[in-house]
Amino acid sequence: MKWLVILGLVALSECVVIIPLTEIKTLRETLREKNLLTNFLEENIDNTSQNATDDPKMSLHPLRNHLDLVYFGNITIGTPPQEFRVIFDTGSSDLWVFSINYSSPHCCANKLFNPHLSTTFRDTSKFFGFRYTSGMIFGSLGYDTVRIGNLENQGQAFALMRRQIGLEDTPFDGILGLGYPSLALEGTTPIFDNLKREGIISQPVFAFYLSSGKENGSVVMFGGVDHSYHRGKLRWMPVSQIGYWQITMNRITMKGMVVGCFNGCQAILDTGTSMLAGPTKSVTIIHKLINAIPFGEEYEVPCSSLTQLPTILFTINGKYYPVPAQAYIWKNHRGRCLSRFQGGREHSNKPEAWVLGDVFLRLYFSVYDRGNNRIGLAPAV
User: Fold this and answer.
1) Nearest CA-CA partner of 90 in 320, 342, 344, 377
2) DSSP tag of 22
3) Which of 94, 144, 173, 270 is catalytic?
4) What is the distance between the alpha carbons of residues 110 and 64, in angstroms, rounded to a whole number?
5) Are 128 and 139 in contact (CB under 8 A)?
6) Is residue 40 predicted with pLDDT exceeding 50?
7) What percentage of residues in the chain have a pLDDT greater than 70?
8) What residues pair up with 269 in beta bridges, in sequence order?
9) Span 329-347, mean pLDDT?
10) Are residues 86 and 164 in the same domain?
11) Is 89 an active-site residue?
């Protein structure tokens, strides 16, 4: 599921509270009980970079954690600069923001880009439509100066959103895609590729640290890796198909039983998705094993059972990546404990695929290396 599917959760974000860690087991406690702690620590004890790209010129940018649902940071567009809150999204490749031509019956808490106020804006009179799982956005294409902190690219292509279907009440003003160029609008170049091509960043990497349960502390970094945000060494895995940040996954297990990715599968690491999304069949198996029952369009478990819920193991490149109950269950303001697994990603003519969203990426610091087409993961601090 792409981020647009998750926006239904954003609209309900006032109903979300963070589960106190005292109510459920920590990752360390869960691993110890499952006899996995020793092996996990042994595999991740080395604090060396293991060929990670590390550069003193790297640039760190703070992200705001909005209720563990979306993460966004500030950029500016135009001259003089107009500021916008955007999701830095590894699951797409285009940059778009709301524009002054945005039409909505209930407009609008979002910042709107005004091209008439920018002396460097260039219009193309080209129109586009983005299709997502649960909606579409429509707009026009333009070029202007875009700044991410001290990183500046002049003449960057971006989309000015005019109309949408299925996208309301977002706490952000746009999306900045960090996927491969093949996903971008035809004839345009994503901003990361422009930064790389023009030598604005010295190394072709970026990385994410996503905080859990607190608004501040999350960062996206460009041009290098700050190793203080993870424990142990980075484990590298090749990108299996250029486009998304896509890798090959071995299996998903729970209580020693394979519950997903039965014959190997593909997985996309997506900072723009809040959930763990997979085929309905596998998600149904998981919900049965944790005794989850339907609650509207979601699934809930008795909150009294949280300390007994099993850890789920994602095996990638032969290594375990545990996801405990404290990560895949969240508690709303009414005291209901809801699953963060979501089905619906089956295709009759395509291999099984999963999306590892923020539920997974809060646990594991992630590095995206375009120079070597690989992803690095290590336990987040």
Assistant:
1) 377
2) G
3) 270
4) 16
5) yes
6) no
7) 81
8) 356
9) 87
10) yes
11) yes
Whether 77 and 168 share a structural domain: yes
- Rounded Cα distance between 3 and 275, Å, is 9
Nearest to 115 by CA among 73, 151, 72, 162: 162
Q: 70 - beta bridge partners?
A: 66
Q: Which domain holds residue 114?
A: 59-221
- Using the 8-state DSSP alphabet, how is residue 262 labeled? B
The answer to whether the CB of 158 falls within 8 A of the CB of 76 is no
pTM: 0.86
Q: What is the pLDDT of residue 330?
A: 87
Summarised one tens digit per residue, pLDDT across range 13-36 is 233 222 232 333 344 444 444 444
List the one residue out of 269, 226, 237 whose CA is nearest residue 90.
269
Q: Answer for the pair 36, 254: CB distance below 8 angstroms, yes or no.
A: no
Number of domains in the chain: 2
Residue that finishes a domain, picked among 203, 221, 239:
221
pLDDT, position 50 = 46
Q: Are residues 212 and 233 in the same domain?
A: no
Which uninterrupted H or E stretch holds 59?
strand 59-66
Q: Which of 193, 221, 249 is the last residue of a domain?
A: 221
Mean pLDDT score of the chain, rounded to an integer?
Answer: 85
- Please give the Cα distance from 334 to 12 (Å, whole number): 12
Q: Quote the tokens at residue 48.
A: 């060396």
- Active-site residue (options: 89, 173, 193, 369): 89
**Bridge partner list, 86:** 73, 174
114-159 residue pLDDT tens? 999 999 999 998 998 877 655 678 999 999 999 999 999 999 999 9
113, 97 contact by CB (below 8 A): yes
- Tell me which of 264 and 3 has the higher pLDDT: 264
Say how far apart CA 238 and CA 252 lie, in whole Å: 19
Residues 122 and 143 in one domain: yes
Output the six-digit token pair for 236.
């590298």
Amino acid at 37: L
The verdict on 27 and 158 lying in the same domain is: no
Q: What CATH number should be reported for the domain holding residue 135?
A: 2.40.70.10
Q: Mean pLDDT, to the nearest integer, of 287-294?
A: 96
Residues 183 and 313 in one domain: no
Are 237 and 321 contained in the same domain? yes
Q: Is 270 marked active-site?
A: yes
Reading the block at residue 372, the tokens are 């070597």
Is the domain of 210 the same as that of 242? no
Question: In this structure, which amino acid lies at residue 279?
Answer: P
